[in-house]
Amino acid sequence: TFACNTATGMCDATSTVDCSLNDTACETFACDPIGANGNCDVVTPIVTCPADTLCETFACNPTTGACDATSIVTCPTDTACETFACNTATGMCDATSTVDCSLNDTACETFACDPIGANGNCDVVTSIVTCPADTLCETFACNPTTGACDATSIVTCPADTACETFVCNATTGMCDATSTVDCAINDTACEVFSCSPNGATGNCDAFAPRFDCSTNDTACLSFACSESGQPGNCDLVSSFCGACCSAMGECVAGITASQCMMQGAGSAFLGIGSACLGDSNNDGFDDRCVPVNVQPVPTVSWWGQSVLLLLLLSGISIRYGGRRQERLDR
């Protein structure tokens, strides 16, 4: 209501509705002649809250006058490794690590936090270097300092020599030998060569004969290998035998000098390769042999043999004629 103030000449207003009864800690109310709520619907905020975001809304608490926030995005529960908070720009839940596992990283692997793990909760390991698969010869492991795959031998091969090198075979786990000297180029038809660390001819010493020629040897003959020899590449190398004349004038062929001496006193070896000639003059002795202390038997010449034959024939004729006359007389 309004009434003129006689002292001031001004119109003083007197409220007929007490709107302060509706005031809160967030806003005040005033009377509106045409309003509702006991004509108290002229509201004046006295608290300004933050603008709503993609993560939460804000509203003034009428009792406390504080701006209460209400989340509209539910983020995962925080862990021992990270916390989660809604990003007001995106409305997404951003994770923030609470453990720095990179301190454990090496050149071979990286570490990540495990909420229930050990080692400062950093036991989620991711390899960043792939080493070759282990073999029967060696194992491989990443070097945490260099990131290179270091090999560790599990098979010890013999030391290399001047003839061959040794390397472990990854498939068999055995040490394979590789010749560094080709001795086969020195091989002949009679012998084969193999490498010797102390050998000659390019470290190739004679290893073994291809043929055992001694199987052809006799008491008189010795055989050795020849590239074009026979039999079985075995040529006659030397002979030890010859002919031997005994004291009785007999000739024995194919014996050695020592065997000749065993024929008795007066025996004579005629030399290696010598042979008996035979008894061409029918004197009972070999032509090459003269018996010791035996005089030669006298021989008859061809004319003498002819005369003896005629006398023999004459004697036969005379005897035959006499016997015939005796028969006629009877």
Structure in words:
Mean pLDDT is 83; it is low at 294-302 and 318-328. This protein has helices at residues 257-261, 302-329; strands at 2-4, 11-13, 27-30, 42-45, 56-60, 67-71, 82-86, 93-97, 109-113, 122-127, 138-142, 149-153, 164-168, 175-179, 191-195, 204-209, 221-225, 234-239, 241-245, 251-256, 268-272. The relative contact order is 0.04. The chain is mainly β and 330 residues long. The chain has 2 helices and 21 strands. Helix content is 10%, strand content 31%. The longest helix is centred in the C-terminal third of the chain and has 28 residues, at 302-329. It starts with a strand and ends with a helix. The strands form 10 sheets. It has a 3-stranded antiparallel sheet. It has a two-stranded antiparallel sheet with strand order 1-2.
List keywords for this structure.
330 residues; mainly beta; three-stranded antiparallel β-sheet; two-stranded antiparallel sheet; 2 helices; 21 strands; rod-shaped
Give the overall silhouette: rod-shaped
The count of helical stretches stands at 2
Q: How does the helix and strand content classify structurally?
A: mainly beta
- Low-pLDDT runs of 5+ residues are 294-302, 318-328
Tell me about the biggest sheet? 3 strands, antiparallel
Strand order of the largest sheet: 20-19-21
The percentage of residues in β strands lies in 25-35%
First-last Cα distance: 236 Å
Binned, the helix content reads: 10-25%
Report Rg. Answer: 69 Å
Q: What is the mean predicted local confidence, pLDDT?
A: 83
Please provide the count of β strands: 21
Written as H for each helix and E for each strand, in order along the chain, the element string is EEEEEEEEEEEEEEEEEEEEHEH
